[in-house]
Amino acid sequence: MVFTQQVNTMNKALLGASILAIAAISVGMMTEQAFAQYMGTVGEGGKTGKNTLEETLKLAKDRVDWAKANPSTGSGTPYLAADGVLGASAISAAVFGGIAAAFFIRGRSGRYAAQGRG
């Protein structure tokens, strides 16, 4: 009897170590190296197909100037649309709130509900 308990404990430890090893190996296999964005340089022909730092800064400045010149266009984030920030939050709250309410209502009655408390 004691030997069987020791074998079961060893089997559980071996199983846990195996799962941990598989998880560690799979995470190592799924991750990739991340590199900084390559901006490129201007070659002799004038273009390399990549933006230089100066070109990127000029584009960013132009975007800021355009946004200041047209304040009525907003930031571009649709807060009240269904695919926007508040719309998606409201839809998520309604869905998960409905599920939670169904669980709470079903939990007050049923086979394992405490007698005399509801």
Shape: flat
Number of domains: 3
Helical stretch tally: 3
Rg, nearest Å: 30 Å
The oligomeric state is: single chain
User: Percent of residues in beta strands?
Assistant: under 5%
The string of secondary-structure elements, in order, is: HHH
Mean pLDDT: 75
Q: Tell me the distance between the termini.
A: 47 Å
Low-confidence stretches: none
Q: Sheet bearing the most strands, described? A: none
* Total strand segments: 0
Structural class: mainly alpha
Share in helix: 55-70%
Can you put this structure into words, describing what you see?
This protein is mainly α and 118 residues long. It folds into three domains: 1-34; 38-76; 79-109. 58% of the residues lie in helices and 0% in strands. It is built from three helices and no strands. The chain has helices at residues 2-30, 53-69, 85-107. The mean pLDDT is 75.
Indicate the topology.
Layout: H1 2-30, H2 53-69, H3 85-107
Compact description:
With about 120 residues, the chain is an all-alpha fold.
What are its keywords?
118 residues, mainly alpha, 3 domains
